[in-house]
Design goal:
CATH superfamily: Winged helix-like DNA-binding domain superfamily/Winged helix DNA-binding domain
Mean pLDDT: 94
Shape: globular
Number of helices: 6
Order of helices and strands: HHEHHEEHH
Helix content: 55-70%
Strand order of the largest sheet: 1-3-2
Largest sheet: 3 strands, antiparallel
Number of domains: 1
Radius of gyration: 18 Å
CATH class: Mainly Alpha
Length: about 150
């Protein structure tokens, strides 16, 4: 009997993603940051001083989740919200010096973890995986756009 695409692709992708998140959370715990917070901090390190809406899109987080993450990051002085001079109803999110320092410290550490995650996978297989993953993401984005339009 052939295995369903749901189990073959959907469940396997979700299961792997959850395992990677658990792994990252374990290694990030001493830094008092989660993998979700790290993804936002890393995004801000790459694109600082952006609106919460832009950050939501770049970090692929819904607004409610992002607000909670930003509250925690702001509480730990990793980010701050500043008034948006172009729109009084919104804030710009900026990474602090402390947040920049943490991001710079964590980046090579996280890269080392992912090097272990892909250990033993040859370059060609990894490129194929990334191409397939990109295609699946692109198809999913198209389906989501159809739903939202």
């Amino acid at each position: 009997m052939e295995m369903s695409k749901d189990k073959l692709i959907g469940f396997a992708s979700v299961r792997t993603s959850r395992k990677i998140s658990r792994l990252l959370n374990h290694y990030l715990k001493p830094y008092q940051i989660t993998s979700e917070q790290w993804s936002v901090l890393r995004t801000l390190k790459e694109s600082d001083h952006i609106s919460q809406k832009e950050l939501s899109e770049k970090a692929d987080k819904d607004q409610a989740t992002l607000t909670k993450i930003l509250d925690l990051l702001e509480k730990n002085d990793f980010v701050k919200r500043v008034a948006n001079p172009k729109d009084r109803r919104s804030f710009l999110i900026t990474i602090t010096e402390k947040g920049t320092g943490l991001a710079e410290e964590l980046y090579p550490y996280i890269e080392g973890i992912f090097s272990k995650v892909i250990d033993g996978i040859n370059k060609e297989s990894l490129e194929t995986y990334l191409n397939v993953l990109h295609s699946i993401e692109s198809n999913t984005d198209s389906l989501l756009n159809d739903i939202n339009n």
